[in-house]
Amino acid sequence: MPGAIYAEGLVKTFGDVRALDGVDLDVPEGTVLGLLGPNGAGKTTTVRCLTTLLRPDSGKAVVAGVDVLRHPDAVRRSIGLSGQFAAVDEYLTGRENLQMVGQLYQMKAKAARTRAAELLEQFNLADAADRPAKTYSGGMRRRLDLAAALVVSPPVMFMDEPTTGLDPRNRQQLWEVIKRLVSGGTTLLLTTQYLEEADHLAHDIAVVDHGKVIAKGTSDQLKARTGGERVEVVVHERDHMATAAEVLRGFGKGDTTVEDHTRKLTVPVTGGAKLLAEIIRELDTRGIEIDDIGLRRPTLDDVFLSLTGHTAETAGQDEDNGKEAVK
Amino acid sequence: MSAVTETVPVAAPGNPLGRSVRDSLIVAKRNLIRMSRIPEVVIFGLIQPIMFVVLFTYVFGGSMKIGGSTSAIDYKNFLMAGIFAQTVTFATAGSGAGIADDMHKGLIDRFRSLPMARGAVLTGRTLADLVQTAFTLLILAVVALLVGWRVGSFGDTNAGKVLGAFGLLLLLGYAFTWIGALIGLTVRTPEAATSGGLVWLFPVTFLSNAFVDTGNMTPWLRHIAEWNPFSATVQATRVLFANPGQSHSHAWPMEHPVLASLMYSVLIIAVFRTLAVRKYRSATA
């Protein structure tokens, strides 16, 4: 039985560009899949195909148990979409926007009105409810957009880079909203360029690059694929490096790498913090003074680098990406 | 994966026509609210036709020969049907620009992901434009009356015929907004839709009987003018208003202007609505 969102071999070309090159996805009901990849990887195109906005050239897609290609209208009744750009009418008030969307979901006018009031309250927009949306801040618009996607409490939600362009505070707020939503049993497909975001919100992560899913699994599984934990030691004196390397070799699960100029030694390990204490004790016994020691867990950045040969952000062009890449 | 079972009912709720009408009205309401919040668009939409009425009346009036007379009063009464018809068609450009703007903003993605009637976004927009056009036409008629235009100046007419003339004008305007909608969907930037929505209207409205007597044109030009759908509505309006300068040509649309105007408008709606809705469905914003 396929999940609430299921895709098999989705292909979409635009002219010479193969935007999707056989995307496979399976998102179990009530879980969150983070679709992670750089700009132009095919994240948005995937979402557009699954939300009936775009017809794939080939492949199969089933959302909420309905074939997307054969019954797009039935799919539309079961999904909510919150896009990259807050899709609200800026001349309409928050309330008018939500009422309109509710009615277009085929709710009765009165029910749509009640639901709009509820959502405005829930999304902290009640005070601004009767102002045109163009007077809203970026964060407020995103919240309104998300509220619009939730008008009918759809069982399946799609969010295309929901926090792109938001400041950290607003991003945090939106994460809270998303978490609350998912705890209510909604199935969510979320695209993001932020590795931290996928780590934070998603049960499973699918890494996409050049229109293909190149890896999938839980955040921990993906991290494990890059070699798991490592211990990093910076010794105080260069002369001690050989001895330190010997000590680490005794604890490590692989080759010790030595960086001469930084006096840093790295070794892959299993066993975590307990092992770290043992290493410190052993180094101490041998009289090796250390400047720094730590257990380093791989980040999704490392995952991306090892999978694609470039970090997640290098393909991006806008400022946000630049900042992430420096980190 | 043929084992997929479809658990969600697939049939659309309600009958499709009722749903289409309802959704169109919801979208129309949205566009009317927008218009009320951006009144400058409506006001600028009024200035141009009013300027035309005043300029044409006082600049050309007295120099143009209408039905063998150069009387300024005759030209004035001749002119208004043409200006009215031109005004309703020029509203097209705004319609296209509005749709292009929507496509641009990503709001269309929201609409396209909702379980609403497929043509409703466009139908709603064109209906809202129709309301605006009716408003513009009303103001324009008042201005025309102020500068001395009168119905029944060239024969008899009655209230029913005058209303019928306005009805034909609005139908023509509505038909043309579908052309504007298609342009708006094709170009996708509001600026291009405004200029692209306007340029073709000049030949269409000037290669006609709107401002001059087609009898004075060279024969090939006259044929184009007499078969121009726009001319049929102008002629029908003149006939129903009982204003001077009606064409005596034997071209079929000039001899049966009311029927021709109706047929042309319905045909334009049928063709361009189909094309526009198809374009909308396949559009990727």
TrEMBL record, chain A:
Per its UniProt record, what SMART domains does this chain match? AAA (SM00382)
Tell me, which GO biological process terms does this entry list? daunorubicin transport; doxorubicin transport; response to antibiotic
Under the heading Pfam families, the entry gives: ABC_tran, DrrA1-3_C
Transmembrane feature ranges: none
The protein's UniProt keywords, in alphabetical order, are: Antibiotic resistance, ATP-binding, Cell membrane, Membrane, Nucleotide-binding, Translocase, Transport
Membrane topology, as annotated, equals: Peripheral membrane protein
EC assignment: 7.6.2.2
- Indicate whether ATP-binding appears among the record's keywords: yes
Where the record annotates domain ABC transporter, the positions are 5-235
- What NCBIfam families does the record point to? drrA
- Tell me the protein family, please: Belongs to the ABC transporter superfamily. Drug exporter-1 (DrugE1) (TC 3.A.1.105) family.
Q: What is this protein called?
A: ABC-type xenobiotic transporter
Please name the source species: Streptomyces actinomycinicus
Q: What is the lineage of its organism?
A: Bacteria, Bacillati, Actinomycetota, Actinomycetes, Kitasatosporales
UniProtKB/TrEMBL annotation, chain B:
User: Is Isomerase there in the keyword field?
Assistant: no
Superkingdom, according to UniProt? Bacteria
Question: What UniProt keywords are attached to this protein's entry?
Answer: Antibiotic resistance, Cell membrane, Membrane, Transmembrane, Transmembrane helix, Transport
TM region(s), chain numbering: 38-58, 78-100, 130-151, 163-185, 192-212, 258-276
Record-level Gene Ontology MF annotations: ABC-type transporter activity
Name its cellular compartments: Cell membrane
Q: What is the first-listed, main subcellular location in coarse terms?
A: membrane
Instruction: Offer one example of a GO biological process linked to this entry.
Output: response to antibiotic
Show where the ABC transmembrane type-2 domain sits.
40-283
UniProt KW Transmembrane keyword? yes
GO CC terms for this protein? Answer: ATP-binding cassette (ABC) transporter complex
Q: How does it sit in the membrane?
A: Multi-pass membrane protein
Could you tell me which InterPro entries the record lists for this protein? ABC2_TM (IPR013525), ABC2_TM_bact-type (IPR047817), ABC_2_transport (IPR000412), T7SS_ABC-Transporter (IPR051328)
Tell me its family: Belongs to the ABC-2 integral membrane protein family.
Provide the protein name.
Transport permease protein
This protein's species is: Streptomyces actinomycinicus
